[in-house]
Amino acid sequence: MTNKVNIAVDAMGGENAPRKIIEGINISLQSSQKNFFYIYGQQDILEKEIAKSKLVQQNCEIINTKDVIVDDESPLAAAKRGKESSMWKAIESQKENKSDISLSAGNTGALLVISRLILNSINGINKPALAGLWPNNNNMNVVLDLGANIECDEKNLLDFACMGAALFKSLFNNNGYPRIALLNVGLEEHKGKDVLKKTYSVLKKNKLKNFEFSGYIEGNQIMEGNVDVIITDGFTGNIALKTAEGTANFITKNLKKSLSKLSILLSYNALKQFKEKLDPRKYNGAIFLGLQSPVVKSHGSTDAIGFAHSIETCHKIVRANLIEKIKSHLITVDA
Amino acid sequence: MTNKVNIAVDAMGGENAPRKIIEGINISLQSSQKNFFYIYGQQDILEKEIAKSKLVQQNCEIINTKDVIVDDESPLAAAKRGKESSMWKAIESQKENKSDISLSAGNTGALLVISRLILNSINGINKPALAGLWPNNNNMNVVLDLGANIECDEKNLLDFACMGAALFKSLFNNNGYPRIALLNVGLEEHKGKDVLKKTYSVLKKNKLKNFEFSGYIEGNQIMEGNVDVIITDGFTGNIALKTAEGTANFITKNLKKSLSKLSILLSYNALKQFKEKLDPRKYNGAIFLGLQSPVVKSHGSTDAIGFAHSIETCHKIVRANLIEKIKSHLITVDA
Question: How far apart are CA A13 and CA B236, in angstroms?
């Protein structure tokens, strides 16, 4: 077991939990048994689900928890009363070094607050951030913050740049210099908010050890694939992400209506490839960066396959020593 | 000529100007001769273009201008040195009551600065805003601000709500109560930035004469068609708009690659309908709202058909008495 990555799973959060969670673990184990799972939740229900798969039985330990954080609960209220919840206990297992990482498909706000309460921040990072993967013409890029911090100053944005670079390297096994860009409303140095101008000038001025600074990027360039990490505050990042989701849904729904059944059949393989390329389950798993131990949030509405993808993300992060990478990436800034 | 709408056109801005501009005017005149055009630009070039169309010759007057604002010029520099430019002179004609509205496909930043220098604000409005049309499942909605104001306070956002409602009514001949929403990162009242919470509480508390308040909306709901006017600051609005454009391009480009020629042929009519529905030329024309006389910005890269659409927008705005509507919509707020 020592060679395996130990993942603490909150089995009670998200749609169709815990069935989807256990099925996701099963899918992941079928492809490789490189992880061990500490599964937190209501024991009797979990045992029934786990009884279906020997593979899961052999690679997990159930920890009975008495309480559950529900999806529409306010984060602060959840944190206040949730000390016996599956989410809380899963994250606590990281503090106790029982697990290397934790994974939940539950209430995002509560997960962020509880993680911050239990786990210490990495020295030098004031605000942890939520990072996600975004498909582009070449592959994927990392975007952060996606909603953990509504207001950010230049120190926060610089930290995001370092953490994003470390995450990109960890996930894509990249030993080069990820290209970092700041999301803005124009490309010229004088454009945009003051906080962006300040961050721009620091990034431009400093010799960057671990990544390359590509300047500003506009919203329409996010998917062009010319940069690897896109930095923004949590308000803007959340609006951009959801606007992209809404636009993608709108277009694919309307296009589907426009294609005859026969023409869909005729392009079946190519359309399937396209659908696979854009399958949101592949990008499932937002990573909460900046704490001494990483926490991954699966989309609440994803299915078992999506959940299995977020398990893979957990594995990569631990194997790549993300936290150590972040520490070595932090820049001391000559402001 | 008295029954016509008088449109001042800056013929020298945007790609392929002035040819595209004159062709756009010609297309517009072919469908209806309800507008008269004061065309500002270099007389010799314009005369050559206009010589091609009797219709344009009969419905325009050329005003020779000596200078041109170029696309990559800084707005302030352009405003400082641009008093003899086609853009400046076109807007000045509004001040002189020679024209009802002006239209330019040139440098957006310069257009905003020059408009503000020449035209007075509507009493009670501190910051004019740039509004655009966004397609949705039902029809279109109005979104503002798309980039005129990077920072906005609650007074600005309330003004945007009133101006947006007046614009929606003007463009869609709507005499009801447009549904207004604030763009945010969550739907609950306590979510998001302080300025949004303050705006929310004012809109909720006040009896609104001219529109209905629908609360918050998230980025993925912009295209759902459940609201008519979406309010946001210029930074967020610009990022959202461009992210949507980038996403739409990414998906349609990849889908095109995935469809076989035969299957495109088989769905030809339906795909054509879809393409027409989403044709960005139809949404061409961002409206600068809040000045005593309206200014419309055509996309610089649109073609003659797109430019003709923005002429139609100009016509509707003047015929619907947009400025009077805005004045009557402004709310005195019990904060």
Answer: 31
